[in-house]
Amino acid sequence: MVALSIVDQGPVSAQTSPAQTIGHSVELARLAEEIGYTRFWVAEHHGVRNMAFAAPEILIGHIADRTSRLRVGSGGIMLPNHTPLHVAEQFRTLEALHPGRIDLGLGRSTGTGDDPTRDALLRFPDALDRFGEHLRQLLGVGGRVPLDPDDPYRELIASPAGVPLPSVFLLGSSVSSAELAARAGLSYAFLCVNQDPEVAARALRRYRALFAPAEEGDRPLALLATRIWVGENDEHGEALASPERLAVLDYLTGDPRPLEPVERALARRLTDAQLAARDKLDFRGDVVGGVDRVASRLAELVEASGADEVMAISNIHSPEDRRDSFRRLAVAAGLCPVPVGH
């Protein structure tokens, strides 16, 4: 049985407004805790019409208040949008309020795809290039690593002092990001979306080979995040995936939309531009089907990558269908013998 977690990107659909999506996230987190999922992370995106979450640091506290055992975290905080000191203070505060239950997942992008939004978000004009420096500063003011004598953060301590920085994960989708996480002694989460899962396997193997503990007792922790849809059978699983896959094509061809109902997504005829965009995408990392097919595919991915944990991203039009998909996924992963709540 592999440990199982969730990354919630806050999917907005024709059925759910952005505000309603937050309430559905709380319901999903409670279900995840009941079933036995390990973590529940929320994403940071800006200017993306079918994703509602832009302030994970607020949502984390809200969800942690409404659960009791589940680890809650960011998947992730986009560090180029924030100052290292502020992030360290936010997450030390969350750790003080919910000891031992908070994860700080850090990404090196801005969480948006358009230039005006990206430029409005960047805390420093060159923040994308200075990710490694800002990561070390965050760890430094959080008490995890020493800083160089000439670093402007050298004398700073993130408040509240005396509270440990929560578990820190570097998020990435390349071998180079795995190497950075390993050398920094951090946990690592690989996003295997629209690429060959063999890249994930190489990255996670490289991460373990290079891992250098930052503190005594640190151990490598490798997570594999991918898109997963689990239906009543294989055909139903593929149908559940269709609105998200169509939304990606809409986004790539300049016509972003909320997730459409399954029936409408299946019936929509793709434009030539969408067909060309689809031909460039790699769906081999997706896990789609009924319980048996998903169980087999999960076992293959874990065996190939050596992942300690699988994180599921399941953007589905209907919140009810999404919860049912996560119930079936728990069965496929061996968390429970039958779907909980049925």
From TrEMBL:
<feature type="domain" description="Luciferase-like">
    <location>
        <begin position="6"/>
        <end position="308"/>
    </location>
</feature>
<protein>
    <submittedName>
        <fullName>Luciferase family oxidoreductase, group 1</fullName>
    </submittedName>
</protein>
<dbReference type="InterPro" id="IPR050766">
    <property type="entry name" value="Bact_Lucif_Oxidored"/>
</dbReference>
<dbReference type="GO" id="GO:0016705">
    <property type="term" value="F:oxidoreductase activity, acting on paired donors, with incorporation or reduction of molecular oxygen"/>
</dbReference>
<dbReference type="InterPro" id="IPR036661">
    <property type="entry name" value="Luciferase-like_sf"/>
</dbReference>
<dbReference type="GO" id="GO:0005829">
    <property type="term" value="C:cytosol"/>
</dbReference>
<dbReference type="Pfam" id="PF00296">
    <property type="entry name" value="Bac_luciferase"/>
</dbReference>
<dbReference type="InterPro" id="IPR019949">
    <property type="entry name" value="CmoO-like"/>
</dbReference>
<dbReference type="InterPro" id="IPR011251">
    <property type="entry name" value="Luciferase-like_dom"/>
</dbReference>
<comment type="similarity">
    <text>To bacterial alkanal monooxygenase alpha and beta chains.</text>
</comment>
